[in-house]
Design brief:
By secondary structure, this protein is mainly alpha-helical. The chain has helices at about 5-10, 10-25, 30-50, 70-75, 75-90, 95-115, 140-150, 155-170, 175, 205-220, 240-255, 265-275, 285-290, 295-300, 300-315; strands spanning about 190-195, 200-205. Helix content is about 55%, strand content about 5%.
Amino acid sequence: MSYSLIREAPPLIREFLNYLGNIQGRSDLTVDEYYRDLRTFFRFIIKDRGLVKNDIQTDDIDISCVDLEMIGSVTFSEIILYLNYCKDERGNTAATRARKTSSLKDFYKYLTVKTHRLTNNPTEELEAPRKGKKLPKYLTLEESLKLLQAVDGEFKERDYCILVFFLNCGLRRSELVGINLSDINSEHVLTVRGKGNKERMLTLNPACVNALKEYLKVRPVNGITDKNALFISRKNCRMTGKGVYHMVEHYLERIGMGNQGYSPHKLRHTAATLMYQKGGVDIRTLQAILGHSNLGTTQIYTHIADEQIENGLKANPLANVDTD
């Protein structure tokens, strides 16, 4: 959790964020996202109501003035205007707007149902924008091998290990950077802390074990700020999600796949797709490996296979023959 962010939040929002983290056990990343969503919303409200000068950019607005009176005066119409603003001016996708909607609904539910500070909930009838069903993007087996073969440079052992972990374990970026040395036992079982601080156990396969052994031979030992962190940056501290993102992006560019919408999360999709399609892993096992709380989230990978079957049938040279 970014405590500097929480400290700058108005009291009621700060109280809500602490409730999410300390009572509900939401991850630090989730709490940060809630705050950013609420901050964007109240910046919009302040700007839309003319409470700041017109020449002040929305993202520069201070929300310290947000109190119970302002929060309670928000109307359903203002929320709709805000979501339109997110779509038209910020270019937010339906998925992002759905998340922002959820943040608002949870915040107002906290103030009305949990703490009874408000009696009116302007989000009660608010529906989340519909998210179109979009199949996840992933690398083929050949592209995955090409990516691994592209690793080189000063941090090649570390970078190779990270890519191998992504492609074999299907980790989220936040899960990967959060790995500690103590999370891997002598039997090569990795304890992963996922969303909501839920833990799952993954037995590392030979590729992961070998990559890890090679990396640990060169992993810095002296002058490290977080001695338990597995993956260390060039500044001798725990690697950040941003650092991992840029590292993955670098190697994708090296194999000619830069600027094509791939990312560390797409490597998670790649791992899941390869396990399901090439490895014959059943959907329940895949759910456990990925740490999905809902089986429906995992079933997207069965849709990929269904689409490939459909495309294969359409590719049959007899597919469009009409004997009439």
